[in-house]
Amino acid sequence: MISMTGFAARRGAGAGYTWVWDLRSVNGKGLDLRLRVPDWVDGLEPTIRAELQKAATRGNLSLTLKVTQDETRDASSYRLNEAALAAALSALSRVEGAAMDAGVTLRQPTAADVLTLRGVIDAATQETDTAPLRAALLADLPGLLADFAAMRAAEGRALATVLGGQLDRIATLTAEAGRETAARAATQADSLRDGLARILAATDAVDPSRLAQELALLAVKTDVTEELDRLSAHVTAARVLVADPAPAGRKLDFLMQEFMREANTLCSKAQSLALTRIGLDLKTVIDQMREQVQNVE
User: Fold this and answer.
1) How many helices, marked H, and strands, marked E, lie in the chain?
2) Which helix (H) or strand (E) is 238 found in, with range?
3) What is the pLDDT averaged over residues 120-145?
């Protein structure tokens, strides 16, 4: 069993860069991918998206990748644009001359001021081939996905343990309901005989065929044998799904609806405080189990 909840982080370096991966997931009805990766690395996002689609079938996945140049690379990543520098100095000279003619004194610009002028410094990274960086990042991606899968698997094992305990509880309550139903049968028979005696004492105009129909209908309305049988069958089916390594979240979610339907019917047919209590306990456990199932892939 795999959980839709997971987290993985990883650091790497190569091709003159360092990077940090952050991958998180929570439950979801389908597979929703949200990526924040450098758009200046050609072809990176589509490849990462394809790999994530292989790694997960359901869940809301958020991946963030931050890439930083090494300091040694930063020092050589910029170059002086001689033509732009000459144009900037010429412009500064004309500005100073105009200021002097107008009787205005300007602060002498520093070298740092000149370097901040647009175009004087060219960022070499704009012309850098990002293919080596892309290759390094994609080579590091499998390690991130492996860590992510390991955490989701560990969460899945914990989920399977919890679900197994809840299924044990449902099976126990179903068995208790069966015993209570058998005990209720004797009490129901006595109550039915008493009610029938009162009706016959009050009137002589009782249609025997209609009375038989009503008694049969009452027996059907209070019989919970089928509900208990279906609950037992659902427990067996759920155990198979929990043990199955294939994604089973959707099937388990549907099965939870069937569990709750049988528990509701059991309560409506209870006709006894003890059986009603068991039915309510069943609904509580099923509801708790349904919350856990929402995290199963």
Assistant:
1) 9, 6
2) helix 225-243
3) 82
Q: Strand, helix or coil at 79?
A: strand
Q: Which secondary structure element, helix H or strand E, spans residue 139, and what is its range?
A: helix 131-202
| 144 neighbors 10 (Cβ within 8 angstroms) | yes
What are residue 12's phi and psi, to 5 degrees? -150, 170
**Tokens found for residue 184:** 């209720």
Tell me how far apart the alpha carbons of residues 269 and 275 are, in angstroms, rounded to a whole number: 9
Cβ neighbours of residue 132 closer than 8 Å, sequence gap 6 or more: 14, 15
Give the 3-state secondary structure percentages of the chain, helix then strand then coil, rounded to 5.
Answer: 65, 15, 20
Phi, psi of 184 (to 5 degrees): -70, -25
Two structure tokens written together for 112: 């740092």
Burial tier of 116 (Cβ tally within 10 Å: 0-12, 13-18, 19+)? exposed
Report d(CA 268, CA 256) in Å as an integer. Answer: 19
For residue 51, the surrounding DSSP H or E stretch is: helix 44-55
Beta-carbon count within 10 A of 140 CB? 17
Q: Is the pTM of this model over 0.90?
A: no
Distance, in Å, from the CA atom of 224 to the CA atom of 244, rounded to the nearest integer, reads: 31
CB 271 within 8 A of CB 224: no
pLDDT of residue 194: 65
| Cβ proximity of 137 and 65 under 8 Å | yes
CA angle at 184 for the pair 195 and 216, rounded to the nearest 5°? 50
Question: Which pLDDT score is estimated for 125?
Answer: 45
User: 37 and 45 in contact (C-beta within 8 Å)?
Assistant: yes
Residue 236's pLDDT is 97
| Among 72, 86, 90, CA closest to 119 | 86
Q: What does pLDDT average to over the chain?
A: 86
